[in-house]
Amino acid sequence: MVEKPGETGGKTIIVAREFRNPEPKTLKEARGLVTADYQNYLEAEWIKELRAKYTVDVKQEVLKTIK
């Protein structure tokens, strides 16, 4: 039994009618995860390139005025 969040004394019963062996996801099931991972990879590479190409100059007196 599992208690439902936000309810006092409420219980949920889960009945498993079938157990399946682990198997790889299909491309259709994994497409969103793969796309998100690739976008994260591209962003990380882009940031590395920008940091290598440009230097950051923080003007402390201006930074203090906006804090």
Automatic annotation (TrEMBL):
This is Uncharacterized protein. It comes from Candidatus Venteria ishoeyi.
